[in-house]
Design a protein that fits this description.
46 residues, 22% strand, 1 helix, single chain
């Protein structure tokens, strides 16, 4: 499966699975945006 990028809808932070080495879906449920603290639900797949 191809690695994806996810964007925080609050601050625009991009979570790049390839750079981070972890798929977004595999992050813990309580993970939050490192920039603004938004929850995973506030991210959209690009």
């Amino acid at each position: 499966m191809k690695m994806a990028k996810w964007e925080c809808l609050i601050c625009g932070y991009i979570y790049d699975e390839e750079v981070e080495g972890t798929r977004f879906e595999d992050l813990p449920d309580d993970w939050s945006c490192p920039e603004c603290g938004a929850p995973k639900e506030d991210f959209e797949r690009l």
